[in-house]
């Protein structure tokens, strides 16, 4: 019969497990137990046993208590981040200990100051069918005082907390970009629907699967081993779902894609004197007075007026902000997506649990909310993933909304002078929304990143932004004239008058050219010496197509069809596809539409295709390889395209081509279906994304009506750098001479068959890259809808001879940074 008495391993205040400010413990996901808020500095053995493990960071120990039971004692919350500082283990694994023997000595003051909480859970982590009896009531205990008894559930007489059956599975994260926001959100949704308590563990770190922030803070990269544990509800089923989501990237669905922010790049090698280097986030130039925007956190009452009062205030604040976000999110535009993300943060049970626990420890509701947010921000910033760390600002933005709602105050009104360059250490989406109508000249931010929500919003607003300037920006004083070059990611304080005059001239010329391009509608673009260079749009939905038409797109150079295939359990039939393609084509009357065949696999697998797990998905079954392996998918998509009433305006593009045989196979399938349906020729093109396709462009051109370069994938394959890896982001630049040489090779190979070449990747929208592409022989640039007027204006200011000369010099440059420097000088010399 199991009956083990545990005594208090710490002197301190006993709390129920639910009050531990970490849902992994509070929700009993690791097992039943109790929490102690310590007042001493030594952790002792709560019973006789054998030491199983001592964490490398010294903050946790597990103990074999006999009878098939193991105990975990974890000093504080998130103390693994202290990396052993302040902890002194006094035992080693394998040691036999008696109740009361010292296990770990620690710096209590250091834990209190550096960790979210010092509350120490004492947990029964192994022990089938046991219950806790005679649990100590809330209040002070001394070392050795009775804490609780562990007995067999059958002997518990129906009292205590029973450990139910737990289902677990070991798996590996196969997402090419690791566990990031999108799959984390889907895991949370699946867990909430299942009714199970689910924990995901990796090494010594764990997270409740009901909290997207907690999942992100694990920092799980591709290849990371994890254990999924579930209790109750549909435990087995939800584990299957999570395992799938950890191995299959699911796209965001049909929502209109935002204007992509540039990749993170190092500042230019040659910068003007006095320039502060940052990272480009939204392109453009701006000159104006510096205006420092400081985030004022309202005065927070430290102590609460009682747990019941403060919990009511927290609930009222959360409800008010939820209603405001729901109302604001009904508005169209990119802000809608941001606000939906903020709503998910507000619903995060981990954030609420941390705030609730802080209230239980005597804090006011407002202070508790900020404390909880700061803990989550620290988790994300410590994840080691730059893109995940960027979401920390969103958490603070949401928390400040709740604090103002609790205190019934309003954020300070923003009154930035028109044309000013806003400087900030951090900038939140809510602030950007408040500044949207103030005609701000530009933004320069000490922190942040190029894929943050504010960067995406700034690009959508057409306002230049550069980020990640660091502490150097602190030297810029309010009111001084600054020059923001968001194309290069630099900021100059008090620039020379002649420099200001030159840049103002460039800005005026750009504005006039873009206005003229917009007025011209979809009239074909051409260089100053009359060479046609078409400007098409990259689309992902019907909404994108309508926006592109309004911006004067000459056609669609890339319709991503993945929005029809992903985030569902079965593939769409040809009739559903035909309806969507018809609407996109109708939104661009009289203009050609290039429809890319399904491009899944790698970072965009569709779960129903059952693509086996691969060691390197980016080099595996993806793109046209998937369609050729599943001919019924290819046939349905081709039938859907051929069913479009205006099929004569459709072009079909084959993704991820690596050899001629793939083009021949698709052409054969297309011709067979055309013959069955009695439809005339439909142009078929190849997407050049692999070095093999670029090197054999002359051979592929024999079987293609056009070639389109996907510069994003081509760059990552040429440079052998995963474009989803933040650690490599600074080096992934499509203006690397190696990439440019393959683009030149593609254009030369296509010219042997008189086949046109376009670029539909990120380089086409880069104002420094476009002249080089034209000089290399590209005659169609396909860009996001918002970039169409600027790209047309850029083309109109070029001559082919100058573009060719720039391209030749770029091919001879040593690296991408030097190519960008050449391009910047060219832009200035040509008045752009």
TrEMBL record:
<feature type="domain" description="HPr">
    <location>
        <begin position="166"/>
        <end position="253"/>
    </location>
</feature>
<keyword id="KW-0963">Cytoplasm</keyword>
<protein>
    <recommendedName>
        <fullName>phosphoenolpyruvate--protein phosphotransferase</fullName>
        <ecNumber>2.7.3.9</ecNumber>
    </recommendedName>
</protein>
<dbReference type="InterPro" id="IPR036637">
    <property type="entry name" value="Phosphohistidine_dom_sf"/>
</dbReference>
<dbReference type="Pfam" id="PF00391">
    <property type="entry name" value="PEP-utilizers"/>
</dbReference>
<dbReference type="InterPro" id="IPR006318">
    <property type="entry name" value="PTS_EI-like"/>
</dbReference>
<dbReference type="Pfam" id="PF05524">
    <property type="entry name" value="PEP-utilisers_N"/>
</dbReference>
<dbReference type="InterPro" id="IPR040442">
    <property type="entry name" value="Pyrv_kinase-like_dom_sf"/>
</dbReference>
<dbReference type="Pfam" id="PF00358">
    <property type="entry name" value="PTS_EIIA_1"/>
</dbReference>
<dbReference type="InterPro" id="IPR008731">
    <property type="entry name" value="PTS_EIN"/>
</dbReference>
<dbReference type="InterPro" id="IPR050499">
    <property type="entry name" value="PEP-utilizing_PTS_enzyme"/>
</dbReference>
<keyword id="KW-0418">Kinase</keyword>
<dbReference type="InterPro" id="IPR001020">
    <property type="entry name" value="PTS_HPr_His_P_site"/>
</dbReference>
<dbReference type="InterPro" id="IPR015813">
    <property type="entry name" value="Pyrv/PenolPyrv_kinase-like_dom"/>
</dbReference>
<keyword id="KW-0762">Sugar transport</keyword>
<keyword id="KW-0808">Transferase</keyword>
<keyword id="KW-0460">Magnesium</keyword>
<comment type="similarity">
    <text>Belongs to the PEP-utilizing enzyme family.</text>
</comment>
<dbReference type="Pfam" id="PF02896">
    <property type="entry name" value="PEP-utilizers_C"/>
</dbReference>
<dbReference type="InterPro" id="IPR023151">
    <property type="entry name" value="PEP_util_CS"/>
</dbReference>
<dbReference type="InterPro" id="IPR001127">
    <property type="entry name" value="PTS_EIIA_1_perm"/>
</dbReference>
<keyword id="KW-0479">Metal-binding</keyword>
<dbReference type="InterPro" id="IPR035895">
    <property type="entry name" value="HPr-like_sf"/>
</dbReference>
<dbReference type="InterPro" id="IPR011055">
    <property type="entry name" value="Dup_hybrid_motif"/>
</dbReference>
<feature type="domain" description="PTS EIIA type-1">
    <location>
        <begin position="22"/>
        <end position="126"/>
    </location>
</feature>
<dbReference type="Pfam" id="PF00381">
    <property type="entry name" value="PTS-HPr"/>
</dbReference>
<dbReference type="InterPro" id="IPR000121">
    <property type="entry name" value="PEP_util_C"/>
</dbReference>
<keyword id="KW-0598">Phosphotransferase system</keyword>
<dbReference type="InterPro" id="IPR008279">
    <property type="entry name" value="PEP-util_enz_mobile_dom"/>
</dbReference>
<dbReference type="InterPro" id="IPR036618">
    <property type="entry name" value="PtsI_HPr-bd_sf"/>
</dbReference>
<keyword id="KW-0813">Transport</keyword>
<dbReference type="InterPro" id="IPR000032">
    <property type="entry name" value="HPr-like"/>
</dbReference>
